[in-house]
Specification:
Layout lengths: L7 E6 L10 H10 L2 E6 L6 H9 L8 E10 L6 E6 L6 H29 L5 H9 L6 H10 L6 H16 L8 H10 L3 E4 L9 H13 L4 E5 L5 H13 L3 E4 L35
Parallel strand pairs: 1-2, 2-3, 5-6, 6-7
Antiparallel strand pairs: 3-4, 4-5
């Protein structure tokens, strides 16, 4: 897949169908205004955003190439594990059945977090706000509760809500929440014809040896790539992840993890935090024609 001259790549973005702020069309328009030539919409545990964009069949020569994607959440006992899937068939029946199950799981987890916030911190939200989120046709989770914390004055920002309450709440009840293993995530992506990449490896909270062992195991289960470029990676981490990808014969991926100016106001699409990423080449894209 060829990148147009003067354009950049962003393989990790979110829409309002998960925890982003922009609709799919708004996101792609924003990308086009920021010199993105190739991108992927990778909403958390849902493909409703990329489906809407494809179904609207918007033709615009200025728009980037949009690769259908997803970011699946794997259940782990430590840190956070997200697995990106690229080039998936959004109409694959097995994929859609699993995502329907994950949608139900997201409601269960959301209500459990809300209950724990009330129990631990005395944080209450209007029933109408909770019901509107539960009834919405998208996956919901901690970012939605963080936004409510800001709305109700319990926090100054989304990050403040996470630091004050939601990280603690997550760690307290993570073992009780339903989830799927990384093996199942990789299988779902492969069954739907996609290419898998571990997202932001720093969030696994592992040392270099532990990460090497894990990625070797995941590669044996079908992992295709590592997200080596991400705004929250240090320069040293990026170099470590490039070496890991090379040593394990894995492809390199990367992106801004853009959510919009409410959820993550410090991150710009394609550019990250204060222009700390600018991707012009990825071995991952060699797998796409």
């Amino acid at each position: 897949m060829k990148l147009k001259e003067g354009k950049i790549i962003d393989m990790h973005t979110h829409t309002s169908f998960s925890d982003g702020n922009l609709t799919p069309e708004e996101l792609v328009l924003h990308a086009s205004k920021n010199d993105i030539g190739i991108m992927s919409i990778t909403d958390h545990d849902t493909i409703l955003g990329i489906k809407e964009f494809q179904e609207n069949n918007i033709q615009n020569d200025d728009y980037p190439i949009v690769i259908p994607g997803i970011e699946l959440t794997a259940k782990v006992s430590h840190g956070r594990m997200h697995i990106l899937g690229y080039g998936i068939d959004v109409n694959n029946p097995k994929l859609n059945d699993k995502l329907s199950e994950l949608h139900d799981n997201s409601i269960h987890s959301f209500l459990a977090y809300a209950y724990q916030l009330e129990k631990d911190y005395g944080i209450y939200f209007n029933k109408e706000d909770i019901d509107n989120l539960v009834d919405s046709n998208r996956n919901i989770g901690r970012p939605d509760l963080a936004i409510l914390c800001v709305k109700y004055g319990y926090a100054n920002s989304v990050d403040d809500a996470f630091n004050k309450y939601l990280i603690s709440v997550f760690n307290k009840i993570r073992g009780d929440n339903p989830g799927i293993s990384y093996e199942e995530c990789l299988s779902i992506i492969k069954i739907s014809g996609g290419i898998s990449s571990i997202a932001h490896p720093h969030s696994l909270e592992l040392n270099n040896l532990q990460l090497l062992r894990l990625l070797r195991e995941m590669a044996s289960c079908g992992l295709d790539a590592i997200e080596v470029f991400h705004p929250h990676h240090t320069k040293e981490q990026t170099q470590d992840y490039i070496l890991l990808a090379n040593n394990l014969n894995l492809l390199q991926s990367g992106g801004s993890d853009y959510h919009g100016h409410i959820a993550k106001p410090d991150i710009e699409i394609g550019r990250g935090i204060n222009n700390n990423i600018c991707i012009k080449k990825l071995s991952l894209l060699n797998r796409f024609k």
